[in-house]
Amino acid sequence: MTAPVGGDRKSAVMPPGGGEEVREAAGRIGGEPRVLGRPLVKHRCGNSATWLRYPRRVTRPEFERARSAEAKRIREAAILEAATRLAGEHGVRAVTLTAIAAAVGMHKSAMLRYFETREEIFLRLSGNGWAEWSQDVRGRLADEGAASGEARISVVASTLADSLVARPLFCDLLAHTPLSLERGVSFAAVRSFKVRALAEAESVGAALCRSLPLTPRQAGNVVATATAMAGAMWQMAAPGTELRRFYEDTPELTHALIDVGPRLTDILTALLHGYCADTAA
Does a structural domain hold residue 58? Predict the structure, then answer.
């Protein structure tokens, strides 16, 4: 055993007066043995136990188990923030539970007290993404002005596409949600996410009905098409990845390069034209 810093092993192990004095002192003050204001701890060696003094004050770990609802909320927010940052840097697919725990400063087993799986963390982020996107789209549609006819359709299509492309993590999550995230959590977690996401999708659909002559069913299909295509095309575009750079550096594969915004706008414009024509007829 290495001697503690600041003195030889003998003087650090036991204060003058021996173990009896330490035990008597501990009994008198009703607490742990201390030397010069510093706590002593038992160190077991073989069949004996001696008191050792730490060379510096012992501090508590940075993260302790949350004991209140507010503490749990703060801890969950820290986990979600770390997952958001890592997914933004490396993509959802590459982020592990261990990496998130390390970024937060927690052991993986401790983090499972707040989220049952890695998938639950990202499913929560997906739900947050739906709420943020819905609010943004509804605000943009309300501020569009008095455009009508062809111009109105183009504005609505570009609004939907641009608002999605502006959220890279949400686009990434849109693809992973049905493929893996919903399948890696409890039914209770799936229900909580679905209720939230469907409510936000319905809110966007209602805003579309106020902007264009669409039925609720048509508006719902537009929202479903926009989000499904954004998720799929984001994976094909592979922005910021080695695969994307490979496409760019290989002339015969340049057709695989996808610019999500313009292509999604074209698809939505065609869909909206067809629906509006049906409604007018």
Answer: no
Show Cβ contacts of residue 76 under 8 Å, excluding neighbours closer than 6 positions. Answer: 114, 115
Q: What is the pTM (predicted TM-score) of this model? A: 0.73
Beta strands in 26-130 (DSSP E): 34-35, 38-45, 48-53
User: What mean pLDDT is reported for the chain?
Assistant: 82
d(CA 274, CA 281): 11
Q: Residue 138 carries which side chain, given as an amino acid letter?
A: R
- pLDDT higher at 25 or 170: 170
Same domain (yes/no): 129, 108: no
- Boundaries of domain holding 182: 123-280
What is the per-residue pLDDT across 98-127, written as a single tens digit (0 to 9) for each? Answer: 999 999 999 999 998 999 999 999 999 999
DSSP 111: H
Q: How many CB atoms lie within 10 A of CB 271?
A: 18
User: For residue 144, what pLDDT is reported?
Assistant: 77
Residues 139 and 219 in one domain: yes
Q: Which of 165, 181, 159, 151 is nearest to 233 (CA)?
A: 165
Enumerate the β-bridge partners of residue 34: 39
154 and 213 housed in the same domain: yes
Q: What is the CATH number of the domain that holds 149?
A: 1.10.357.10
Which of 103, 105, 69, 107 has its CA nearest to residue 84? 103
Cβ atoms of 238 and 138 closer than 8 Å: no
Q: Which CATH number fits the domain that encloses residue 98?
A: 1.10.10
Please answer whether residues 217 and 278 qualify as being in contact, where contact means their C-beta atoms are separated by less than 8 angstroms: no
Residue found by looking up tokens 């607490």 in the block: 31
